[in-house]
Amino acid sequence: MGHGFNLPSPLAPNPPPNRYTLQRLGGTDAPPTRLCPMERALNTSRVEIDLAGVDRNVAVLRACARAGARLAGVTPDKLRFCAVIKQDAYGTGAIRMAKRLAAMDVDMLAVYCASEARALVDVPIKTPIMILMPTYSFDRNDALYRLAVRDRLHFALHSAHQAEALTELAARLGMTLPVHVQVDVGMSRGGCLPDEAAAIVQSVVRSSRLRLAGVMTHFSSPGTDAEFTREQAGLFKHWIESIRPAITEHAKTVAARGGEPLAVHLANTCATLRWHGLHGTMLRVGQGLLGYGPETFHEDDAPEFAHAASQLVPVVRWLSRIVHTHDIPAGWPVGYDRTFIAKRPTRIAVVPVGYADGYPRALGNRAYVRLTGLAYDRPRTTAGLEVRPEVGERGIYAPVVGRVSMDQITIDVTDLPERFTAINAEVELVGSDASSPNHLPLLAQLGETITHEMLCRISPHLERLYVAGEHPTGHALPETPSPDAHDAPAPIAKVMPADTTTPRRLSATGA
Question: What is the CATH topology of the domain spanning 20-49+314-467?
Answer without folding.
Answer: Lyase, Ornithine Decarboxylase; Chain A, domain 1 (2.40.37)
